[in-house]
From TrEMBL:
The lineage of its organism: Bacteria, Bacillati, Actinomycetota, Actinomycetes, Kineosporiales. InterPro entries: Excalibur_Ca-bd_domain. Keywords: Signal. Residues 1-27 form the signal peptide. This is Excalibur calcium-binding domain-containing protein. Pfam families: Excalibur. Residues 77-96 are annotated as: Disordered. Residues 34-94 form the Excalibur calcium-binding domain. Coiled coil: none annotated. Residues 86-96 have a biased composition (Acidic residues).
Amino acid sequence: MTARTRTAAVLGGVLLATGVVAPPAAAAPAARAYATCSALNAVYPRGVAVSSSSRDRTTGTPVRGFAVSRAVYQLNDGAPNRDLDRDDDGIVCERR
């Protein structure tokens, strides 16, 4: 075994042992439909927006810190028998 081969083998073993080569990808939670805003707020406390540019329509303090997920939004507003975005501002079940 040459010095170059030995160095490559040791370096490969170190990278593999420390998990630098290919760490497992974190699975994103699957989008699902919720029956009520209470059920959705248990998972998303501030609500879910269709995009990051969505703005809360309110006369008081606007809601901030909502999650952004087009898939979750579409399943809970616009799907048959689903209208959890009652004020049509692009945020379902917003809550302060």
